[in-house]
């Protein structure tokens, strides 16, 4: 009996390995993800790297080149795009030693240590119209300086220089993708950059946001954002576009072709959907979009203008960031496929199976971050007897929300349904958690009190922050990373063996 059960378990384990191997071998290219770090309480880098590995991400895009993050990626097998913030572009463009220093400090050493850096993203969406042209003169010279520095360091073949651009650098006057071209006011600059990308073999990196189309135009047809057909398709010659992603991607392909650069590859630097902070930002739409997108590209069939060329993309984003600017909108802090603590927000099959009907078993659900340590189960709320008419209440809420994150409050958001007192409590708790549950952060001139009863209700979640002070010591973290690495490499060896047998 016991022996039979043991054999059964062994067989089951073999079956699991076979299924996992088959899905890995079928997948042409795994998807990437953006790892932003604008959090009040970031998870330890080693925890995030394990989260990436557990969920099968094989490439990650960063917004800078933080030492602790790159060190954690060492030997992970994950390909890395490092970034240079816009405020450094002027220095790098000025020539001199700045680019050499940047490459030496932020690339060369890490590559030597075994970090698989593939790209340097010089600037981030520098030509957004909201920047008023601030980076128009410095972006390309900065790219050239970094490329020259990489060449001097002997890394230019391995590490390519590019710039992630917002999708409004190209457009189509007729809305038909085949009429795509670069924006008139920066046309010459775009050709200079594309020429550089073409001659260095670097990709054009474009960020594509159907959510923003919907957010900025209430008449945007909702079903055109998703991937299940549309009541308002775009007919372009012999091609019918039923989703805005393909149309957007091909508008860029047409712009490249029109200008003689049809061979430049395209990488989707950011694509995703937020879950909170706006009426169109919720877990249901986010799951529909992200699962639709992942399944759409999983077969490697490409887009109408690039058939058979797999779409190379980085989801935006990995984890919610409570410190992001909300100037674009309150949704800005809710792009993660994971919550602040590395718990998944909704089921998502990164293998593209989707829908929950077959397609990838355990991979249909994201795996949570492991070993996360939280603060105590304590929350801060408005005292039951408090008078909402009291001027101090409004002032306290403004103060709390100015320093902490209250973007889950508002019309049709996750906490949009709570009553006025619940609103105040939400703000108090958000501040209290941000301040690591310091007693002094749950006073608000006598209006607040701490409780061990979770005030969360329905979709409105009152969080308990993670304990950043109790992060696993570096030694412990990397020891576990080492085990994970060894397990991963033995699995890899098994897979290699299998692929030879197949
Ligand atoms: C990269 O290198 C530059 C120049 O050495 C340095 O100022 C910068 O802080 C480094 N780190 C990041 C994250 O860019
Ligand atoms: C761009 O110009 C507008 C209007 O003049 C101004 O409000 C805004 O702050 C400027 N933005 C930047 C990044 O300079
Ligand atoms: C960029 O250069 C042009 C031409 O040299 C100049 O007129 C413009 O003011 C510059 N823009 C910025 C933001 O420096
Ligand atoms: C694209 O074509 C140009 C001109 O034929 C060539 O110089 C360049 O190397 C090609 N680039 C890529 C990435 O194939
Ligand atoms: C709760 O707060 C939000 C955001 O400040 C506000 O829009 C909403 O009207 C408030 N709800 C109630 C019931 O007071």
Helix tally equals 14
Number of strands: 17
Integer-rounded radius of gyration? 24 Å
* Largest sheet data: 9 strands, parallel
State the shape.
globular
On the 0-100 scale, what is the average pLDDT?
Answer: 88
Q: Give the oligomeric state of the chains in this entry, treating copies of one chain as homo and distinct chains as hetero.
A: single chain
Q: Extract low-pLDDT stretches.
A: 1-28, 354-362, 471-502
User: If strands are numbered along the chain, what order do they take across the biggest sheet?
Assistant: 5-4-3-2-1-15-12-9-6
Structural class of the secondary elements? alpha/beta
Strand percentage lies at 5-15%
Q: Roughly what percent helix? A: 25-40%
Listed once per kind, the bound small molecules are: 2-acetamido-2-deoxy-beta-D-glucopyranose
Give the termini separation. Answer: 34 Å
Main location: membrane
EC number: 3.2.1.39
Signal peptide: 1-30
Catalytic activity: Hydrolysis of (1->3)-beta-D-glucosidic linkages in (1->3)-beta-D-glucans
Describe the structure in your own words:
The protein has 502 residues and is α/β, with parallel strands linked by helices. The protein has 14 helices and 17 strands. A nine-stranded parallel sheet has the order 5-4-3-2-1-15-12-9-6. A two-stranded antiparallel sheet has the order 7-8. A two-stranded antiparallel sheet has the order 10-11. The chain starts with a helix and ends with a helix. The N terminus and C terminus are likely disordered. The site of one 2-acetamido-2-deoxy-beta-D-glucopyranose has 5 residues, from helix 13. The site of one 2-acetamido-2-deoxy-beta-D-glucopyranose has 3 residues, from loops.
């Amino acid at each position: 009996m016991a022996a039979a059960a043991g054999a059964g378990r062994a067989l089951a384990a073999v079956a699991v390995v076979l299924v996992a191997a088959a899905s890995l071998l079928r997948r042409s290219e795994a998807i990437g993800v953006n790892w932003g770090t604008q959090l009040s309480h970031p998870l330890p880098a080693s925890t995030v790297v394990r989260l990436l590995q557990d969920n099968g991400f094989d490439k990650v895009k960063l917004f800078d080149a933080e030492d602790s993050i790159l060190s954690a990626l060492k030997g992970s097998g994950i390909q890395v795009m490092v970034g240079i913030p816009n405020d450094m572009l002027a220095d790098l463009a000025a020539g001199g030693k700045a680019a050499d220093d940047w490459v030496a400090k932020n690339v060369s050493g890490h590559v030597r240590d075994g970090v698989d850096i593939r790209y340097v993203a010089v600037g981030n969406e520098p030509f957004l119209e909201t920047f008023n042209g601030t980076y128009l003169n410095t972006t390309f010279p900065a790219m050239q300086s970094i490329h020259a520095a990489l060449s001097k360091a002997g890394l230019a073949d391995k590490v390519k220089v590019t710039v992630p651009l917002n999708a409004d650098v190209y457009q189509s006057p007729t809305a038909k993708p085949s009429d795509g071209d670069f924006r008139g006011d920066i046309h010459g600059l775009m050709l200079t950059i594309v020429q550089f990308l073409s001659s260095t073999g670097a990709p054009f990196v474009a960020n594509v946001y159907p959510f923003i189309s919907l957010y900025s135009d209430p008449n945007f047809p909702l079903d055109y954002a998703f991937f299940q057909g549309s009541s308002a398709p775009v007919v372009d010659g012999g091609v019918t576009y039923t989703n805005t992603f393909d149309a957007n991607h091909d508008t860029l392909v047409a712009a490249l072709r029109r200008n003689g650069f049809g061979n430049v590859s395209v990488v989707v630097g950011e694509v995703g959907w937020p879950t909170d902070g706006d009426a169109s930002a919720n877990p249901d739409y986010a799951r529909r979009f992200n699962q639709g997108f992942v399944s759409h590209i999983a077969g490697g069939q490409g887009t109408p203008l690039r058939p058979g060329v797999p779409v190379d993309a980085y989801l935006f984003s990995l984890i919610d960031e409570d410190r992001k600017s909300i100037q674009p909108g309150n949704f800005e802090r809710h792009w993660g496929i994971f919550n602040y603590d590395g718990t998944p927000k909704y089921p998502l099959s990164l293998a593209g199976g989707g829908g929950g009907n077959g397609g990838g078993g355990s991979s249909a659900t994201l795996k949570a971050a492991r070993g996360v340590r939280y603060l105590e189960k304590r929350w801060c709320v408005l005292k039951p007897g408090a008078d909402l008419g009291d001027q101090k209440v409004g002032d306290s809420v403004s103060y709390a929300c100015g320093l902490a994150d209250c973007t889950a409050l508002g019309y049709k958001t996750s906490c949009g349904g709570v009553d006025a007192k619940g609103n105040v409590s939400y703000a108090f708790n958000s501040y209290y958690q941000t301040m690591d549950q310091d007693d002094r952060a749950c006073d608000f001139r006598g209006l607040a009190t701490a409780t061990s009863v979770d005030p969360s209700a329905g979709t409105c979640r009152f969080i308990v922050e993670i304990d950043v002070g109790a992060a696993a010591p570096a030694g412990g973290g990397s020891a576990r990373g080492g085990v994970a690495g060894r397990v991963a490499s033995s699995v890899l060896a098994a897979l290699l063996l299998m692929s030879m047998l197949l």
